[in-house]
Amino acid sequence: MKKVTQNQYGDTSVLKIIDCDKPRITGKAEVLVKVQYSSLNAIDWKNRKGLFRIFSGWFSPRSQPGFDIVGSIVNKSDDVNDLEIGDKILSLLGTLKGGAFSQYVIINAKYAIKINPSADETIFAGLPMAASTAWMALVNHGKIKRGDKVLINGGSSGVGHYAIQIAKHYGAEVTAVTSEKNEAFCRELGADNTVDYQNEKYIGKTEQYNIIFDVVSNSSFHEIKPILAPNGIYIDTNMSLSLIKDLLIHKQVKFVSVHPDRKVLQEIVQMTEFGKLKTHIAKIFPMNNITEAHEEIEHCHTVGKIIIKID
Ligand SMILES: NC(=O)c1ccc[n+]([C@@H]2O[C@H](COP(=O)([O-])OP(=O)(O)OC[C@H]3O[C@@H](n4cnc5c(N)ncnc54)[C@H](OP(=O)(O)O)[C@@H]3O)[C@@H](O)[C@H]2O)c1
User: Closest residue (by CA) to atom 36 of ligand 1?
Assistant: First the structure.
Protein backbone atom coordinates (compact mmCIF):
# COMPACT_ATOMS: atom_id res chain seq x y z
CA MET A 1 0.00 0.00 0.00
CA LYS A 2 0.98 3.67 -0.33
CA LYS A 3 1.23 6.29 2.39
CA VAL A 4 2.65 9.76 2.96
CA THR A 5 5.49 9.92 5.46
CA GLN A 6 7.70 12.59 6.92
CA ASN A 7 10.94 11.75 8.72
CA GLN A 8 12.34 15.25 9.10
CA TYR A 9 11.06 18.82 9.41
CA GLY A 10 11.20 21.21 6.49
CA ASP A 11 9.58 22.37 3.25
CA THR A 12 7.21 20.19 1.23
CA SER A 13 10.12 18.08 -0.09
CA VAL A 14 10.19 16.23 3.28
CA LEU A 15 6.83 14.65 2.40
CA LYS A 16 7.45 11.29 0.73
CA ILE A 17 4.98 8.80 -0.73
CA ILE A 18 6.27 5.33 0.03
CA ASP A 19 5.21 1.73 -0.57
CA CYS A 20 4.87 -0.34 2.59
CA ASP A 21 3.04 -3.35 4.01
CA LYS A 22 -0.61 -3.07 4.91
CA PRO A 23 -0.94 -2.80 8.73
CA ARG A 24 -2.40 -5.83 10.54
CA ILE A 25 -4.75 -6.06 13.48
CA THR A 26 -2.71 -7.22 16.47
CA GLY A 27 -4.46 -5.79 19.52
CA LYS A 28 -7.91 -5.43 21.04
CA ALA A 29 -10.56 -2.87 20.07
CA GLU A 30 -8.94 -2.22 16.70
CA VAL A 31 -10.37 -1.79 13.22
CA LEU A 32 -8.50 -1.73 9.93
CA VAL A 33 -9.84 1.01 7.67
CA LYS A 34 -9.44 1.39 3.93
CA VAL A 35 -9.17 5.17 3.78
CA GLN A 36 -11.04 6.96 1.00
CA TYR A 37 -10.71 10.61 1.96
CA SER A 38 -8.86 12.79 4.46
CA SER A 39 -8.40 16.54 4.76
CA LEU A 40 -5.63 19.03 5.40
CA ASN A 41 -5.51 21.15 8.53
CA ALA A 42 -3.24 24.10 9.31
CA ILE A 43 -1.66 21.81 11.89
CA ASP A 44 -0.32 19.64 9.03
CA TRP A 45 1.93 22.31 7.54
CA LYS A 46 2.93 23.61 10.97
CA ASN A 47 3.87 20.06 12.02
CA ARG A 48 5.79 19.57 8.77
CA LYS A 49 7.86 22.68 9.50
CA GLY A 50 8.52 21.61 13.09
CA LEU A 51 6.59 24.44 14.76
CA PHE A 52 5.34 22.02 17.47
CA ARG A 53 8.74 20.35 18.11
CA ILE A 54 8.31 20.63 21.84
CA PHE A 55 5.40 18.15 21.55
CA SER A 56 6.06 16.39 18.25
CA GLY A 57 9.73 15.49 18.78
CA TRP A 58 12.66 17.94 18.91
CA PHE A 59 14.92 16.45 16.22
CA SER A 60 12.46 14.49 14.08
CA PRO A 61 8.68 14.11 14.00
CA ARG A 62 7.06 11.37 16.08
CA SER A 63 3.71 11.88 14.37
CA GLN A 64 2.97 11.24 10.69
CA PRO A 65 1.05 13.51 8.27
CA GLY A 66 -2.75 13.62 8.31
CA PHE A 67 -5.34 13.32 11.08
CA ASP A 68 -8.77 13.01 9.43
CA ILE A 69 -10.17 9.73 8.16
CA VAL A 70 -13.20 8.65 6.16
CA GLY A 71 -13.27 5.10 4.85
CA SER A 72 -14.62 1.57 5.19
CA ILE A 73 -13.82 -1.11 7.73
CA VAL A 74 -12.03 -4.07 6.12
CA ASN A 75 -11.04 -5.99 9.27
CA LYS A 76 -11.56 -5.80 13.04
CA SER A 77 -10.41 -7.47 16.22
CA ASP A 78 -12.66 -10.15 17.75
CA ASP A 79 -13.84 -7.97 20.64
CA VAL A 80 -15.35 -5.27 18.37
CA ASN A 81 -19.08 -5.97 18.30
CA ASP A 82 -20.72 -2.69 17.35
CA LEU A 83 -18.96 -2.29 13.99
CA GLU A 84 -19.07 -4.57 10.95
CA ILE A 85 -16.78 -5.12 7.99
CA GLY A 86 -18.05 -2.83 5.24
CA ASP A 87 -19.26 -0.08 7.61
CA LYS A 88 -18.38 3.41 6.48
CA ILE A 89 -16.79 5.39 9.26
CA LEU A 90 -15.18 8.70 10.15
CA SER A 91 -12.38 9.14 12.68
CA LEU A 92 -9.83 11.54 14.10
CA LEU A 93 -6.27 10.37 14.80
CA GLY A 94 -4.41 11.77 17.83
CA THR A 95 -2.15 14.74 17.12
CA LEU A 96 0.90 12.86 18.43
CA LYS A 97 0.22 9.92 16.09
CA GLY A 98 -1.34 11.02 12.79
CA GLY A 99 -0.78 8.96 9.65
CA ALA A 100 -4.14 9.50 7.91
CA PHE A 101 -2.64 9.95 4.43
CA SER A 102 -2.39 6.21 3.97
CA GLN A 103 -4.43 3.65 2.02
CA TYR A 104 -4.96 1.55 5.16
CA VAL A 105 -4.90 2.66 8.81
CA ILE A 106 -5.56 0.85 12.08
CA ILE A 107 -7.65 2.87 14.52
CA ASN A 108 -9.15 2.42 17.95
CA ALA A 109 -12.73 1.21 17.42
CA LYS A 110 -13.95 3.64 20.10
CA TYR A 111 -13.23 6.54 17.75
CA ALA A 112 -14.73 4.97 14.62
CA ILE A 113 -18.07 6.72 14.08
CA LYS A 114 -20.47 5.20 11.56
CA ILE A 115 -21.63 7.49 8.76
CA ASN A 116 -24.53 7.13 6.36
CA PRO A 117 -23.36 4.50 3.80
CA SER A 118 -25.05 6.26 0.90
CA ALA A 119 -23.71 9.73 1.71
CA ASP A 120 -21.01 11.48 -0.29
CA GLU A 121 -17.83 10.77 1.75
CA THR A 122 -16.22 14.10 0.84
CA ILE A 123 -18.73 16.01 2.99
CA PHE A 124 -17.48 14.11 6.07
CA ALA A 125 -13.75 14.21 5.30
CA GLY A 126 -13.20 17.79 6.44
CA LEU A 127 -14.96 17.35 9.77
CA PRO A 128 -12.90 15.33 12.25
CA MET A 129 -10.18 17.75 13.39
CA ALA A 130 -11.60 21.13 12.35
CA ALA A 131 -15.21 20.61 13.49
CA SER A 132 -14.08 18.84 16.72
CA THR A 133 -11.91 21.88 17.51
CA ALA A 134 -14.82 24.25 16.91
CA TRP A 135 -17.17 22.08 19.00
CA MET A 136 -14.72 21.63 21.88
CA ALA A 137 -14.03 25.38 21.96
CA LEU A 138 -17.64 26.61 21.85
CA VAL A 139 -19.51 23.85 23.65
CA ASN A 140 -16.97 22.37 26.09
CA HIS A 141 -14.98 25.50 26.96
CA GLY A 142 -17.40 28.30 26.04
CA LYS A 143 -20.55 26.58 27.40
CA ILE A 144 -22.37 28.29 24.55
CA LYS A 145 -26.09 28.98 25.04
CA ARG A 146 -28.98 30.61 23.22
CA GLY A 147 -28.63 34.38 22.93
CA ASP A 148 -24.86 34.47 23.54
CA LYS A 149 -22.94 36.99 21.50
CA VAL A 150 -20.08 35.06 19.89
CA LEU A 151 -17.17 36.50 17.94
CA ILE A 152 -15.18 34.17 15.69
CA ASN A 153 -11.85 35.57 14.54
CA GLY A 154 -11.11 33.74 11.27
CA GLY A 155 -14.65 32.89 10.13
CA SER A 156 -13.68 31.54 6.70
CA SER A 157 -11.04 29.08 7.95
CA GLY A 158 -11.58 25.34 8.23
CA VAL A 159 -12.20 25.61 11.97
CA GLY A 160 -13.98 28.98 11.74
CA HIS A 161 -16.53 28.01 9.10
CA TYR A 162 -17.66 25.10 11.28
CA ALA A 163 -17.64 27.34 14.37
CA ILE A 164 -20.07 29.80 12.76
CA GLN A 165 -22.55 26.99 12.04
CA ILE A 166 -22.19 25.36 15.48
CA ALA A 167 -22.69 28.73 17.21
CA LYS A 168 -25.82 29.41 15.14
CA HIS A 169 -27.10 25.90 15.88
CA TYR A 170 -26.90 26.82 19.59
CA GLY A 171 -28.87 30.02 18.97
CA ALA A 172 -26.01 32.50 19.36
CA GLU A 173 -25.64 35.85 17.64
CA VAL A 174 -22.47 35.46 15.58
CA THR A 175 -19.94 38.02 14.45
CA ALA A 176 -17.30 36.68 12.06
CA VAL A 177 -13.99 38.46 11.52
CA THR A 178 -12.97 37.85 7.94
CA SER A 179 -11.69 39.60 4.81
CA GLU A 180 -14.07 41.52 2.56
CA LYS A 181 -13.95 38.78 -0.09
CA ASN A 182 -15.23 36.22 2.43
CA GLU A 183 -17.91 38.31 4.18
CA ALA A 184 -20.74 36.94 2.00
CA PHE A 185 -19.44 33.37 2.60
CA CYS A 186 -19.57 33.84 6.39
CA ARG A 187 -23.07 35.34 6.19
CA GLU A 188 -24.27 32.41 4.07
CA LEU A 189 -23.06 30.09 6.85
CA GLY A 190 -25.21 32.06 9.29
CA ALA A 191 -23.02 34.89 10.64
CA ASP A 192 -25.24 37.81 11.70
CA ASN A 193 -22.43 40.36 11.47
CA THR A 194 -19.03 40.50 9.83
CA VAL A 195 -15.94 42.60 10.46
CA ASP A 196 -13.54 43.04 7.55
CA TYR A 197 -10.15 42.66 9.24
CA GLN A 198 -8.35 44.47 6.43
CA ASN A 199 -10.31 47.68 7.01
CA GLU A 200 -11.50 47.51 10.64
CA LYS A 201 -10.10 46.30 13.94
CA TYR A 202 -12.56 44.13 15.88
CA ILE A 203 -10.66 44.76 19.11
CA GLY A 204 -11.46 48.50 18.95
CA LYS A 205 -15.23 47.98 18.99
CA THR A 206 -17.51 48.89 21.90
CA GLU A 207 -19.69 45.75 21.61
CA GLN A 208 -18.95 43.04 24.19
CA TYR A 209 -19.07 39.29 23.54
CA ASN A 210 -19.86 36.29 25.77
CA ILE A 211 -17.48 34.10 23.77
CA ILE A 212 -14.53 35.09 21.63
CA PHE A 213 -13.13 32.17 19.67
CA ASP A 214 -9.75 33.08 18.23
CA VAL A 215 -8.77 30.96 15.26
CA VAL A 216 -6.16 33.47 14.06
CA SER A 217 -4.47 34.39 17.37
CA ASN A 218 -3.16 37.75 16.18
CA SER A 219 -4.03 39.82 19.30
CA SER A 220 -3.12 39.47 22.96
CA PHE A 221 -5.71 38.83 25.67
CA HIS A 222 -4.83 42.26 27.05
CA GLU A 223 -6.10 43.80 23.78
CA ILE A 224 -9.15 41.51 23.63
CA LYS A 225 -10.30 41.89 27.26
CA PRO A 226 -12.24 45.19 26.77
CA ILE A 227 -14.60 43.51 24.28
CA LEU A 228 -15.17 40.42 26.44
CA ALA A 229 -18.31 40.52 28.61
CA PRO A 230 -17.58 40.41 32.40
CA ASN A 231 -18.14 36.64 32.60
CA GLY A 232 -17.19 35.99 28.99
CA ILE A 233 -14.77 33.32 27.80
CA TYR A 234 -11.87 33.81 25.40
CA ILE A 235 -10.71 30.61 23.68
CA ASP A 236 -7.46 30.53 21.74
CA THR A 237 -6.29 27.88 19.27
CA ASN A 238 -2.56 28.62 19.24
CA MET A 239 -0.21 28.12 22.19
CA SER A 240 2.29 30.85 22.99
CA LEU A 241 4.25 32.06 26.02
CA SER A 242 1.87 34.99 26.49
CA LEU A 243 -1.11 32.61 26.34
CA ILE A 244 0.48 30.38 29.02
CA LYS A 245 0.83 33.46 31.24
CA ASP A 246 -2.79 34.51 30.57
CA LEU A 247 -4.08 30.96 31.21
CA LEU A 248 -2.41 31.05 34.63
CA ILE A 249 -3.72 34.50 35.55
CA HIS A 250 -7.19 34.80 33.98
CA LYS A 251 -10.04 32.34 34.53
CA GLN A 252 -11.66 33.71 31.38
CA VAL A 253 -8.85 32.46 29.13
CA LYS A 254 -8.96 28.93 27.67
CA PHE A 255 -6.91 26.95 25.18
CA VAL A 256 -8.61 24.34 23.03
CA SER A 257 -6.53 21.23 22.45
CA VAL A 258 -8.21 18.97 19.93
CA HIS A 259 -8.13 15.21 20.52
CA PRO A 260 -10.31 12.26 19.49
CA ASP A 261 -13.54 12.36 21.52
CA ARG A 262 -16.28 9.88 20.64
CA LYS A 263 -19.16 12.08 21.82
CA VAL A 264 -17.93 15.12 19.93
CA LEU A 265 -17.37 13.10 16.74
CA GLN A 266 -20.88 11.69 17.05
CA GLU A 267 -22.34 15.18 17.48
CA ILE A 268 -20.65 16.58 14.37
CA VAL A 269 -21.61 13.55 12.28
CA GLN A 270 -25.21 13.88 13.44
CA MET A 271 -25.30 17.61 12.67
CA THR A 272 -23.92 16.87 9.19
CA GLU A 273 -26.44 14.10 8.55
CA PHE A 274 -29.26 16.45 9.60
CA GLY A 275 -27.93 19.09 7.18
CA LYS A 276 -27.00 21.46 10.02
CA LEU A 277 -23.22 21.38 9.48
CA LYS A 278 -21.94 21.87 5.98
CA THR A 279 -18.39 21.54 4.74
CA HIS A 280 -17.25 24.05 2.19
CA ILE A 281 -14.78 22.22 -0.04
CA ALA A 282 -12.11 24.58 -1.36
CA LYS A 283 -10.38 21.89 -3.46
CA ILE A 284 -9.88 18.13 -3.66
CA PHE A 285 -6.29 16.92 -4.20
CA PRO A 286 -5.31 13.30 -4.88
CA MET A 287 -2.80 11.95 -2.32
CA ASN A 288 -0.13 11.94 -5.05
CA ASN A 289 -0.35 15.76 -5.08
CA ILE A 290 0.12 16.14 -1.32
CA THR A 291 2.95 18.67 -1.75
CA GLU A 292 0.74 20.99 -3.85
CA ALA A 293 -2.02 20.65 -1.25
CA HIS A 294 0.45 21.65 1.52
CA GLU A 295 1.66 24.63 -0.51
CA GLU A 296 -1.94 25.76 -0.95
CA ILE A 297 -2.97 25.56 2.72
CA GLU A 298 0.28 27.18 3.88
CA HIS A 299 -0.77 30.45 2.20
CA CYS A 300 -3.40 30.70 4.98
CA HIS A 301 -6.17 31.80 2.60
CA THR A 302 -8.04 28.52 2.18
CA VAL A 303 -11.80 29.02 2.47
CA GLY A 304 -13.28 25.99 4.24
CA LYS A 305 -11.46 22.71 3.73
CA ILE A 306 -8.94 21.07 1.40
CA ILE A 307 -9.88 17.42 0.92
CA ILE A 308 -7.33 14.70 0.13
CA LYS A 309 -8.51 11.76 -1.99
CA ILE A 310 -6.62 8.68 -0.82
CA ASP A 311 -7.76 5.61 -2.71
N1 LIG B 1 -5.37 23.97 19.34
C2 LIG B 1 -5.93 23.06 18.54
O3 LIG B 1 -6.29 21.95 18.98
C4 LIG B 1 -6.12 23.40 17.08
C5 LIG B 1 -6.85 22.51 16.25
C6 LIG B 1 -7.05 22.87 14.91
C7 LIG B 1 -6.51 24.07 14.44
N8 LIG B 1 -5.80 24.87 15.27
C9 LIG B 1 -5.25 26.16 14.79
O10 LIG B 1 -6.36 26.91 14.34
C11 LIG B 1 -5.97 27.74 13.30
C12 LIG B 1 -6.91 27.56 12.12
O13 LIG B 1 -6.71 26.30 11.53
P14 LIG B 1 -7.43 25.99 10.15
O15 LIG B 1 -7.00 24.66 9.71
O16 LIG B 1 -8.88 26.29 10.26
O17 LIG B 1 -6.73 27.14 9.23
P18 LIG B 1 -6.96 27.53 7.72
O19 LIG B 1 -8.21 26.94 7.23
O20 LIG B 1 -5.72 27.28 6.96
O21 LIG B 1 -7.13 29.14 7.82
C22 LIG B 1 -7.15 29.91 6.64
C23 LIG B 1 -8.23 30.98 6.77
O24 LIG B 1 -7.84 31.97 7.73
C25 LIG B 1 -8.31 33.23 7.28
N26 LIG B 1 -7.47 34.30 7.82
C27 LIG B 1 -6.14 34.47 7.63
N28 LIG B 1 -5.72 35.57 8.29
C29 LIG B 1 -6.80 36.10 8.91
C30 LIG B 1 -7.01 37.23 9.75
N31 LIG B 1 -6.00 38.04 10.08
N32 LIG B 1 -8.24 37.46 10.23
C33 LIG B 1 -9.28 36.65 9.90
N34 LIG B 1 -9.16 35.56 9.09
C35 LIG B 1 -7.93 35.29 8.61
C36 LIG B 1 -8.20 33.17 5.78
O37 LIG B 1 -9.14 34.03 5.19
P38 LIG B 1 -8.69 35.29 4.27
O39 LIG B 1 -8.19 34.73 2.97
O40 LIG B 1 -9.93 36.06 4.16
O41 LIG B 1 -7.59 35.98 5.02
C42 LIG B 1 -8.51 31.70 5.47
O43 LIG B 1 -9.88 31.50 5.13
C44 LIG B 1 -4.51 27.41 12.98
O45 LIG B 1 -3.67 28.36 13.60
C46 LIG B 1 -4.33 26.05 13.60
O47 LIG B 1 -2.99 25.81 13.98
C48 LIG B 1 -5.60 24.56 16.57
Answer: 301
